[in-house]
Design goal:
The chain is an alpha/beta fold. It folds into three domains: 9-74 and 98-180, HUPs (Rossmann fold, 3-Layer(aba) Sandwich); 185-301 and 343-363, Argininosuccinate synthetase, chain A, domain 2; 378-405, no CATH class. Helix content is 40%, strand content 19%. It contains 13 helices and 14 strands. The strands form three sheets. A five-stranded parallel beta sheet has the order 3-2-1-4-5, with helices on both faces. A hairpin with a 5-residue loop joins β11 (264-270) and β12. α3 crosses α8 and α10 packs antiparallel against α11 (328-340). The longest helix is centred in the last third of the chain and has 20 residues, at 303-322.
């Protein structure tokens, strides 16, 4: 849609908070268009009712207010596929924010089609990764959609200017929003992330009050907690024999992680747009899931398949971090990853203790672990020790040739 063409109807990703409420009013004034609000329940824990009430207060028609519970879809179709790959960005980050954005953007496009909107909008700033994740997804699903990014367009230069606009248009301002927030928070069922203000100095330890999903490991119980996690085709399906839906299972893992101080991460990461950013992340259930999934893979995946997955994973993680969930290369990688999970079924015994996650047992009907092969005891075995001599010589052949060339022989 050409930028100079009038906007008739826009779907706004709306949290109900102060910033997106300001954006809602700004869209109405700047574009003179009808605004449709979309609020996604991804398990962030916020009360969603006020989002509807505030949208009504700001003049949005009841039929143009959409609040959708996406928790099961989020975990089933986005989180679990990502964890089949054991995905971590830059060796540590479990991508809790990154994986939520394509689902929100997809739902926005679905609503835009439903209501006949010609534009979509989001509240991401011009310095972050989320603007890229939202907009790349919009364009991947609806190539000609008009995208409005207020933080890149409006003339507000300060927090005070935003608050003045809110007051002038009777937008409710909570007392704790009048001053500068000590840090910003994003949360969903997989994680919470905190950035900015008190966290901007990477040399300064994060204050304890920043953490909201876990107790301090020092305050965790003095006795370990053990449980079993069952997998089918790479996805977790039950805890201690109790089958759970994807969202319910991740919720249960979050509770276990919280109570045992599991899942804290203080990270300086490289943003896609080129700057470094310090964040404090809490992913209690995801941290447990990653360790357990690697545990069941350790006995069900062939060495070649496992090592190839590990080689592909950083590229897969980068695609998700950068917002390319709906790109063909991510889908190609997903097909390979999902194929590798056909026999990743069984149970893992997990022990949690003061921030640590340890796999202490694993079993599968498809296990490749052969005790006859690995035992130190002599017995019936497919392995002949004498075979190792030829194997070693063949693998050392190129090194022997090079040593002779370089004069290392006596």
């Amino acid at each position: 849609m050409p930028a100079d063409k009038p906007v008739k109807k826009v779907v706004l990703a709306y949290s109900g908070g102060l910033d997106t409420s300001i954006i809602l009013k700004w869209l109405q004034q700047t574009y003179g268009c009808e605004v449709v609000t979309f609020t996604a329940d991804l398990g962030q824990g916020d009360e969603l009712g006020p989002a509807r009430d505030k949208a009504l207060l700001l003049g949005v028609k009841p039929e143009n207010i959409f609040i959708e519970d996406l928790r099961e879809e989020f975990v089933r179709d986005f989180v679990f596929p990502m964890f089949r790959a054991n995905t971590v960005y830059e060796g540590q980050y479990l991508l809790g924010t990154s994986i939520a954005r394509p689902l929100i953007a997809k739902a926005q496009i679905d609503i835009a089609r439903k209501v006949g909107a010609d534009a979509v909008s989001h509240g991401s700033t011009g310095k972050g990764n989320d603007q890229v994740r939202y907009e790349v997804t919009y364009y991947a699903l609806e190539p000609d959609i008009r995208v409005i990014a207020p933080w890149r367009e409006w003339d507000f230069k300060s927090r005070e200017a935003l608050l003045a606009f809110a007051e002038a248009h009777q937008i409710p301002i909570a007392k704790d929003k009048r001053g500068e927030a000590p840090f910003s928070v994003d949360a969903n069922l997989l994680h919470s992330s905190s950035e900015g203000k008190v966290l901007e100095d990477p040399a300064a330890p994060a204050p304890e009050f920043v953490h909201m999903r876990t107790i301090s490991p020092e305050d965790a119980p003095d006795r370990p907690h053990e449980f079993t996690l069952a997998f089918e085709r790479g996805d977790p399906v039950a805890i201690d024999g109790h089958a759970l839906s994807p969202a319910a299972l991740l919720t249960a893992l979050n509770a276990l992680g919280h109570d045992n101080g599991v899942g804290r991460l203080d990270l300086v990461e490289n943003r896609f747009i080129g700057m470094k950013s310090r964040g404090v992340y809490e992913t209690p259930g995801g941290t447990i899931l990653l360790a357990a999934h690697r545990g069941i893979e350790s006995i069900t995946l062939d060495r070649g398949a496992m090592h190839l997955k590990d080689e592909l994973m950083p590229r897969y993680a980068e695609l998700i971090y950068n917002g390319f969930w709906f790109a063909p290369e991510r889908e190609m990688l997903q097909a390979a990853i999902d194929h590798s999970q056909e026999k990743v079924t069984g149970e893992v015994r997990v022990k949690l203790y003061k921030g640590n996650v340890n796999v202490i047992g694993r079993a599968s009907p498809y296990s490749l672990y052969d005790q006859d092969l690995v035992t130190f005891e002599e017995g019936v075995s497919a392995y002949d020790h004498r075979d190792a001599a030829g194997f070693i010589k063949l693998n050392a052949l190129r090194l022997r040739v090079k040593a002779r060339r370089d004069g290392r022989t006596r």
